[in-house]
Specification:
440 residues, alpha/beta, Aspartate Aminotransferase, domain 1, 14 helices, 17 strands, binds pyridoxal-5'-phosphate
Length: 440
């Protein structure tokens, strides 16, 4: 299966930000970036919600559908065998991308399902499923699950539900007034009762890269397991789950140039081997009687039902594309634009950039509140200029509540974002303030 990478851009093996000329050449691989919106060329600053797809990804999905489509791990015919091969190759690509082994990658529909897979696996273990091997996952009254006040709802509600199902207590690492994780409070909170810690690598609101290593060290001291929400990090920086020493990590395909409908769970091999399944049914079993079933080893144990094969293949093409450009270069590009957004927006009177004072590295994402103007109005004003941003609570209501607001406007960049687009957002926000204040 060919997954043609970007272009000639690719040659320079350095950590420096992409040049403007390189970004403009990359953009030619993304047909949608050429469209007009409301009479203006689209400026897509909403990659934090979902990223755009290069031709290499669209082609990979189409090529699979037109030359190889078949159900995997089932048929004995040639096409099914070939489809299974590219499906498993795609798994290996994801594994390499994050420093894991291929047996440690489970396909899911999205990151939300991946978090739920772990949470339901733990509660099934807590009901006694999975036998002695699953004992290490059992939780109940007196045990604690720890998460943070900055999580996306996808990495919060499944833990609330797990606590409700098992009788365990959910504890939340608080934020300081800027929005940073309070590590001293975390150290006090994480103790002998802590069985599980779920934390985001990069906040989808603040854009800061959390000091995950410190939380993992706290977890290790008390023998707790750690799940990393890597939805906003895997697309934007080099990620090595082994170097970070996390036990689980979740990825979202549509945020890293891939299609929607595909995500992945990383699980340390011995943990996946011990975790009971979440979804059950076809394709995850060895022997079934009318009263019971034996399950396949991971990752198939967690992949019940017909799989999302063309999406998996397309996600692998997306990863090939990102790798060809180079994750360190993408990270440098993003860090520069994140800083440019924060500085440019902070300089506008009446704009408060959330987390602007946090002294941590960032990706290219900034959320902000405009004094006296609702985020929907700011977003509408920018949309009229062809600038796409996200408005609302970004699935992080507790974080917004902690910062004393109900919603914000978020601009997020990616490897195809130009400096002109970043500056257009900043100028657009200044224009919105002018417009609404004059109208007030
Ligand atoms: C930090 C974070 N976690 C989880 C998710 C959920 O991802 P998915 O859409 O793949 O379920 C998102 C998506 O916005 C996110 O930004």
């Amino acid at each position: 299966m060919s997954t043609t990478p970007a272009a000639d851009v690719i040659a320079s093996p350095i950590d420096s930000p992409l040049t403007d000329a390189e970004v403009r050449r990359l953009r030619q691989d993304f047909p949608i970036l050429g469209v007009e919106v409301n009479g203006h060329p689209l400026a897509y600053l909403d990659s934090g919600a979902t990223s755009q797809r290069p031709l290499a990804v669209l082609d990979a999905e189409r090529e699979f559908a037109t030359t190889l489509n078949a159900a995997v791990h089932r048929g004995a015919h040639t096409l099914a065998g070939e489809a299974t091969e590219v499906f498993e190759d795609a798994r290996a690509t994801v594994a390499r991308f994050i420093g894991a082994d291929e047996g440690e990658i489970v396909w899911t529909s999205n990151a939300t399902e991946a978090v739920n897979l772990v949470a339901y696996g733990i509660s099934n273990a807590s009901l006694g499923r999975g036998g002695a091997a699953a004992e290490r996952f059992r939780i109940g009254q007196g045990d604690e699950i720890v998460t943070t006040e900055m999580e996306h709802h996808a990495n919060l509600i499944p833990w609330q539900e797990l606590a409700a199902r098992t009788g365990a207590t959910l504890r939340v690492i608080p934020l300081d007034d800027d929005g940073a994780l309070r590590l001293v409070a975390a150290a006090e909170l994480i103790g002998d009762r802590t069985k599980f810690i779920a934390v985001t690598h990069v906040s989808n609101v603040l854009g800061v890269i959390n000091p995950v290593e410190e939380l993992v060290a706290m977890a290790r001291r008390v023998g707790a397991l750690v799940l990393l929400d890597a939805c906003q990090s895997a697309p934007h920086l080099p990620l090595d789950v082994r170097a970070l020493d996390v036990d689980f990590a979740v990825l979202s395909g549509h945020k890293m140039l891939g299609p929607s409908g595909i995500g992945a769970l990383y699980g340390r091999r011995e943990l996946l081997e011990a975790l009971p399944p979440f979804l059950t049914g076809g394709s995850m079993i060895t022997t079934v009687t009318t009263t019971e079933a034996e399950y396949l080893p991971p990752p198939q144990r967690f992949e019940a039902g017909t799989q999302r094969v063309s999406q998996a293949v397309a996600l692998a093409a997306a990863i090939d594309y990102l790798s060809a450009v180079g994750m360190p270069r993408i990270a440098a590009h993003e860090a520069a634009f994140g800083r440019r957004l924060v500085d440019g927006l902070t300089a506008i009177d009446g704009v408060r950039v959330l987390g602007a004072g946090i002294d941590l590295p960032r990706v290219g994402l900034a959320s902000f509140d405009v004094d006296g103007i609702h985020s929907h109005d700011v977003g509408q004003y920018l949309d009229d200029l062809g600038i796409a941003v996200r408005v609302g609570h970004h699935c992080a209501q507790p974080l917004h509540r902690r910062l004393g607001i109900t919603s914000s406007t978020r601009a997020s960049t990616y490897l195809y974002t130009t400096e002109d687009e970043v500056d257009a957002v900043i100028a657009g926000v200044a224009g919105a303030i002018d417009f609404f204040r004059r109208g007030a």
